[in-house]
Fold these 4 entries.
Entry 1:
Amino acid sequence: MYPDLSTLSHHAPRARESGTGPAEPLTEIVGRVGRSVVAVHGRRRMPSSGVIWRHGVVATAAHTIRREDGIEVTLTDGSRVAALLAGLDLGTDLAVLRLDGVDLEPVESGDARSLKPGHMALAVARADEFGVSADFGVVGSTGGPWRTWRGGQLDAFVRLDGGLRPGFSGAALADMRGQVMGICTSALMRGAGMVIPGMTVERVTDELLAKGRVSRGYLGVGTQQVSLPDAWVNKLNLPFNSGLLINSLAPGSPAEQAGVLIGDVLIELDGRPCRDMDGVHAALGSASIGEQLQITLIRGGERHACSVTVGERPQRNSCR
C-alpha cells in the first residue's frame, strides 16, 4: 500500500473507476467508510482497526485480539466503550465483537470477486490518537477460493501490493466506488496484506455469533509432503507420485484411535487423493465431523486401509 492519505484535501481529483458505477473523490470515500470504522483495543500497545459489519457487530482481525475480557472499542466520535468477544476464527483470521447500546451504520459491502490485479483500493483504519487514516494502493493479485495455511477457506484470494501499516489489520478495504470489499489482515501471508472477502466475513460472522467458534474436522496428524518412490507408484498403480508422511500423532486423536502409525504415508482420504494438505482440508469441512471416512495409507510399501471417525478440531486459545 502507498502513503497515508488522511491529510488529502477535499479538492482531491476523482479516482478512476473499478468495475461499474461512478467513482468518488478519495476523501469522500474515506470519510464515508470511516464513519463505520472503529479502533479495537484487544492488545497491549497499538490498537487495531475494526469495521461495523452489522448493527452492533464489529468484525476485525483475530490475530490482534490477545485477551477475552476487557476489550474496548473507540467509536467514530472518540468515545470508548466496552466490547464483548462473540468469537474468533484463526483459520480465516476473523474475530467478531458485540457492542451493546451502540447503533452505528454498517458499511456497504461489495463482492471481492470483482477485484482484478491493478484495481486501486483504499484501506481505511482508525487509531485512537489520529482518528481515521487511509492507505492507498493497488490490488496485487486475485484468484478463486483459497485455503489459508491455518485451514480456513476464503471465498476469494485478494493480495494487496505490499504490507500493511501498523494498526491497519482489521481495516476496511474499499474500492473506488466506496464499497467495502472485505477486512485487511497481515496474518495470512508473510510480507503481504491480504483481504478477508466480505462473503467470508458474512459466513464466518454468522457462525461465530451463533456458537462462538467455527467447526472444522480433525484427524490429529502432523504431516510432511513427500515424493513416492517409483517402485511404490508402479507396484500400487498410483496415478500420482506424492503423499503425506505422518510424522506426529496427537494423543487420543481420531487418527490414533483408528490405528494410524507414525511413518505411514497418507495417499487418500474418503476416496480423494491426498498429495498435499489441501486435499486433507477439502475433506474435513464442518459437515464431516462425526462421519466415518476411509483412509488409504502406504505402510511398509503396501497399501493399507482403515476407517476414522472425524473429530472436531480443538479450539486453540489465541487470547494470550
Entry 2:
Amino acid sequence: MHILIVEDNPLVASGLKSGLELHGFTCDVAATQAQAGNHLAASHFDACVLDLGLPDGNGLDLLRTWRGRGKDLPVLILTARSSLEDKVAGFQTGTDDYLTKPFDLQELALRLQALLRRAAGRASDVLTLGDCQVNTATCEAWRDGQAIELSRREWALLTALLQARGRILSPAQLHDSLYGFDLDVGSNTVNVHVHHLRKKLGNDTIETVRGLGFRLGARYCAHAA
C-alpha cells in the first residue's frame, strides 16, 4: 500500500516513513503542499497522512483543494492540534480520520488499514483467494491451511492488486507501490515479484495483460471487493 506522508519536520517524517514501512506500507514524503501535489500527479497513492502546519500553507487548504477537485484519496490528519474545533474543521473539510500528536505508531498503522479497507468496500481484513487466505492487517497468508511467508515487497504487490479490485496496473504503477520514489531498481523487479507470488499463491492469482500490466485474477476480484 502506497502512502503519501505530508510532513515538513524531517525527523517526524523520517520516523513515520521508517515505522510505517515496518508495518508493510510503502511511503513517500512531501514537505510542502507543492511537493504533495507533484507526488500525486506523478504516482498513485492509496492514502495520505497529512500534517496541518506546512511551510506554504495550512494542510486544510490542501485538503479542501483536493476535495473540491473530486479527489477521493483517503486522508488521515496527523497533527498536534487537538481541540474539538480543530477536529470539527478537519472532518468538515473532508478528512477521513484525525489523530493527534503524540501518537502510537501501531495505532496509526491500524487506522490506515481501516481506511484502506473501507475504501475498498470490505468489512473484513481476511480475504479468500481460491485455496488461499490473506489477512491484510497482520500480513499473514495461508494456503490449504499452511502458513505462507511473503516478503515485504510481495505483500506490497499483493495489496496493490487487491486495492485495484480488477483494474490493470502498469509495471510503473506497481513499481511505485513496491518501492516509492526513493529506490532506483532494475526494470525487471516487478516481474520477479509477480513470479514469486504466483509460485506461493497459485498461477491464476495474478493475470498478465499483454502490453498493459497486471491485475488480480478474474475469479478473485469479487472477494477483493
Entry 3:
Amino acid sequence: MGPDPSVTKQKIKAGTAKRIVPYTRPYRVSICLLLLMTVANAAIVVAVPILFKYLIDNGIAEHDSDVVVGIAVAVGGLAVLGALLGFGEAWYSARVSEGLVYELRTKVFDHVQRQPLAFFTRAQTGALVSQLNADVVGAQQALTSLLSTVVSAALTLLFVLITMFYLSWVITLISLVVLPFFILPGKVVGRLLQRLMRSQMEQNAEMGALMNERFNVTGALLTKLYGLPSRELRQFTKLA
C-alpha cells in the first residue's frame, strides 16, 4: 500500500521552467512589487530586534525618556508598516495566482479540445479533470506562495546573519557550525514530501478517472451489465 516507485522516482523534465516563464510575463510588475514587499518585510523582521537593543542599552539603561519614546514610536510604525506590507503581499500574490490559474486552465482546456477523437478514446476523463483542477492549483502555489516564502526566508536569513556578525561574530560562527544539522534533515524531508505530493496527485487523478468512468451513463451501463459491485468497490478502496 506504499507509494508507487514508478511515480515517486520521477523527476521534473528539463526545460519545464522555460515553459512556465512565458505565463508570468503579463504579471511582471505585480511579481516585482510582491518581491519588493517581501524584501521590506524581511528587513523589518531584523530591524525590530536591533531597535529593542538600542532601547535597552541607550534608553532604559541610560534613563533617557526621549530615546525610549522615539524607539517605541519607531517600533510601532514598523509594526503598522509590516501589517500594510503583509496586506500588499496577500493582494499581489492573489492577483498573480488567480490570473495564472485562469491562464493555465483556459490554455489546457483549449489544448485538450483541439485533440483528435483518438485522444479521447485513450485518455482518462478523470485524469484530465484532475489536471485542470488540482495540478493547475499546484502550479499556481509554486509560482506565488512558494516563491514569496523562499525569497522571504532567504532574505531573512541573509539579514539576520549580517546583523549577528555586527553584534557578535563569535556567536554567529557557532551558529553557522550547527546550521547543517538543521539543513540536512530539512532536505531529506523535502524530498520525501515532494515524492508524496507527486504520488498524491497521481492517485487523485486515478480516483477521479475511476469515478468519471463509473458514474456516467455509458460506464454505469457497462458496470451493471458486466461488472461486480464488490470488485468495483475493491478497486476504488485501493485507490482511496
Entry 4:
Amino acid sequence: MKQWMLAGMMVVAMLVGTACAADQQPKPNGEMEATIKRVVDGDTFELSGGEKVRMIGVDTPETVKPNTPVQPYGKEASDYSKELLTGKQVTLKFDVEIKDRYGRLLAYVYLPDGSFVNEKLVREGYARIMTIPPNVAHADLFLEAEREAREQNRGLWALEESQPKESSEKKTSTSGESKKSAQSSEAPEGKLIKGNINSKGEKIYHVPGSANYDRTNPEEWFATEEEAQAAGYRAPKR
C-alpha cells in the first residue's frame, strides 16, 4: 500500500512539474519569469538559459553590430541597460510574434517593481521607437514617451539639439540633391525609416525589419515614425 501511495505521489509531482514548465514556455500574448544573465547592448540581452531577447518597439544606437561603428549615445544606452538589467529577475510579456527572424525572443520587459523597461529606454532618451507590426500593443505609449524625450532634449535627443543647424541658403542650394540622395541605398545618418509613395499616390513608411523594407526605394528618409507621420506618411496596413 505504501509503495502504491509513494508511486502515486511521484506521478502527481511529475504532472505538476510538467504543467509548471509548460506555463513558462513563450506563447503569443503570454508571459514568463526569467533571469537576465548578461546585456548584449541597449535593447538586447541573454537569459540564464541562453536565450537571446530583443525588446519590442525600441531601437537603441548600435554598439556591437558587425561592420557597424559604435553609434552616438550607443555606449550610454548599453551601460544604462546593463545597470538596469544584469542579473535581474524579470517578467517577459509577449505580443503576437514570439521570435524575430534571428531566432531571438521578442518581449516587453518588466522589473520586479513593475517598471516597464522598454518604455523607460524611450522616455529617458536612450532609444528611438521602432514599431514593427503585428507587435504593436504599446505603440501609442512608446510614441508619447518619445515625444516627451524629444521635447525635453533627453539622451540622444540632446545630441541632435547640439548639432549645428544648416543655414536656409544651404538648404535651398541642396534641396535639389535631397531627392536624389533619398533614392540612394544608404540611409542618411540617424534616419532608417523609408518613406515611399506607391502607384496610387499613397504615402507609406517602412521601418527596418518590416516585410517590404529591403525592397523599398525611399522618396524620403525619417528618423522616427512620428516624423514620418507628420510628413503625411502612414504605416503599412499589413
